[in-house]
Specification:
This protein is an alpha+beta fold. The chain is built from 12 helices and 19 strands. Strands 1, 2, 5, 6, 10, 11 and 12 form a 7-stranded antiparallel beta sheet that branches. It has a 6-stranded mixed beta sheet with strand order 15-16-14-17-18-19, sandwiched between helices. The chain has a 3-stranded antiparallel beta sheet with strand order 3-4-7, with no helix packed on it. Helix 1 packs parallel to helix 11. The chain is elongated, with a radius of gyration of 28 Å. It starts with a strand and ends with a helix.
Length: about 425
């Protein structure tokens, strides 16, 4: 939020503005503002509100729509407006950056102008997108699933196991719910995983599996207890998660002891990071990502490079709070930084679809690309490679033991 200088033509200055709020709805938006309750300055008798809409991919220098409104709404300091018609394209509200400037006035006297902006992806005007809006992404994912099924066997793609890992409050459970809604094409779908509210203790205490069908294929998303760090004892548990089949309902501290040689490990992983935490606690988050990435690249005692992608959640909050001249560029710079420390080019920015929200074309594309990458990587890397070797060793050992037993029995019968 920025403040520009006051100009007094005559009389005294009105009370100083302290904050601006912007609330974006599906059909309209609201601007609110507050003034300093302290001090001896009089209340403003009018507020000048300047609204400007920009393309968020550009420099936000030339608005594609603007309007200035004099609002004498004392004592109610709020203005509700419908989106301009220029923002609507067929059944979609186009992506925009909205800049707001509010100036308090008394007669010809003007206080300091206060500025704030917010950015939002494109949104469907109704709560349903046409099938064509999903067609390209779903066709790409279906093609990737068929290719993986041909290469690795139909049994794998009947229920491809994808483990979801990350620190507390990164949005793991919400991501699983959002992907399920995308796969079902239904934002009215109830939560299948219980997300923890911000500031509360982690909700996921043990592994939980969410199975979601996709045509003749299917996914099993395995939500895991958070790994606050990947060091000391946690390293052993994390490696067990990647190299063995872990039964549903297993607590993190039991991963090593519950690993089952007879069950295949997950075929791929989604590493979840919160864009807001990355912004506010960058060094800590990047250190965590590097550590986890190292474990992915040396899974199964260094025998397997585990397939994974990164889901950077809370894309909507990041764009909403971005106050720079080029919001989308700032998002791209965040992605570039995450790629470097997570040791992968495959970083996708996601707004996790909550129940009954409207669809976003950009988020739909990101979810589609994320899932296509996961399936393609799983096709090209067998995460059960080391497990299969150990199974052969066990079978060979049992065979040798059986041969000895048979020989002893034969000898005793002579």
């Amino acid at each position: 939020m920025t403040v520009q200088g006051a100009m007094t033509v005559q009389g005294c200055q009105p009370k100083e503005l302290t904050s601006i709020g912007i609330e974006l709805g599906a059909d309209d938006f609201a601007i609110s503002w507050e003034t300093n309750a302290q001090g001896g300055s009089p209340d403003a008798d009018c507020f000048e509100i300047k609204l400007e809409f920009f393309d968020p991919a550009g420099r936000c220098l030339a608005p594609w729509w603007s309007k200035t409104i004099d609002h004498s709404g004392r004592p109610r300091k709020m203005l509700e407006l419908a989106y301009p018609e220029e923002a609507k394209q067929k059944q979609v509200l186009r992506a925009f950056t909205l800049k707001v400037a509010v100036t308090a006035k008394i007669g010809h006297s003007r206080g300091r102008s206060l500025h704030r902006q917010t950015t939002r992806d494109s949104q469907s005007i109704t709560r349903q997108l046409s099938p064509e809006s999903f067609k390209s992404g779903r066709e790409s994912l279906m093609a990737a699933c068929r290719a993986c099924s041909c290469a690795r066997g139909a049994h794998m793609m009947e229920k491809m196991k994808v483990v979801i890992v990350g620190q507390q409050h990164m949005g793991k459970s919400s991501l699983a719910n959002g992907i399920a809604r995308w796969l079902h094409q239904d934002t009215g779908l109830d939560d299948q995983m219980a997300p923890a509210p911000a500031g509360h203790a982690a909700k996921t205490a043990e592994t939980k599996c969410l199975e979601v069908p996709f045509g003749q294929f299917g996914f099993a998303f395995i939500d895991t207890p958070h790994f606050a760090s990947v060091s000391d004892d946690n390293e052993q548990h994390f490696q067990a998660l990647l190299s063995r089949g872990i039964p549903d309902g297993t607590r993190r501290t039991d991963f090593s002891g519950s690993a089952n040689l007879l069950t295949d490990p997950p075929q791929a992983a989604i590493l979840v990071v919160d864009l807001m935490q990355w912004r506010d606690q960058r060094k800590e988050v990047e250190r965590y990502l590097r550590k986890v990435a190292d474990h992915f690249h040396s899974a199964a005692a260094g025998k397997v490079s585990f397939p994974y992608v990164v889901a950077a959640t809370h894309r909507d909050a990041f764009l909403s709070e971005c106050q720079g001249e080029r919001p989308m560029l700032e998002l791209e710079q965040a992605v570039s930084s995450l790629r470097e420390c997570a040791l992968t080019e495959h970083v996708y920015t996601i707004t996790s679809y909550k129940k009954k929200v409207v669809w976003s074309l950009e988020v739909n594309d990101q979810i589609s690309e994320l899932l296509c990458a996961l399936v393609t990587f799983a096709k090209n890397q067998d995460t059960a490679l080391q497990v299969n070797r150990e199974r052969l060793w066990c079978i060979g050992g049992l065979g040798a033991m059986l041969a000895v037993v048979v020989a002893l029995v034969a000898a005793s019968g002579r």
